[in-house]
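Researcher: Here's the sequence for the chain we discussed earlier.
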Amino acid sequence: MQKRIEPPVLLSRTLVFVLASALVVLGVLFTTLYRMFPLQRPQIFFLTTEIRDDQVVQLESMTPNNENLDMYKTAFVREYIKYRNEFFSNPAKMLGKWNAESGIVRKTSSQDVYAKALNTKMINEVISGATDLNFECLVFFKHDPLYFAADDAYQVKFTYFCTDNTTGQATQKDYTIKLRIKDENNAQIKWAERIDNPLGLQVTEYTVIDGPGDPLDTAF
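Model: Thanks. This is the structure I predict for it:
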């Protein structure tokens, strides 16, 4: 006599299968969400109608949550350190980042800070058209930037790791940088810059307080 699965048993097995599948999907979802946080930086959004990229926007005084603003400024400091010091063997890309009118380093530095950066060896070689810069340098932070309210400045510690793409030779140097930024009420930014620097922040001091000189002078 052929065995037959009774409907209640079949139903219970189906429910177990559906429940197990749902748990697997939820597990994957929670794992994905967990890996997304914390986000790299808080992002500021502008809501508007259609507007030109060269339109100038005036930033009015606002009162964001202090914790979110501090997180944004900390992320800005990290990004500035990387934009200023990381080097890739692509002169056109580096020239655009360092020297172009719309370059991120130029836009986010005060005139004095930018003038000092232009005097470094690596930036001078890129601007002069050097083509034999076959190495790369990366920034690895030791911890998040520390803010010292008494000095109104940030302190950043990082390791500067450079590799010669031809020989494979590598150097590793440690630095501590003191960095001060300003954010002005009623600052003006171009609409096209709202993603890179929505608050119009500028670095007004960039000082090496520990390390073998400016990283851009000491790669190799």
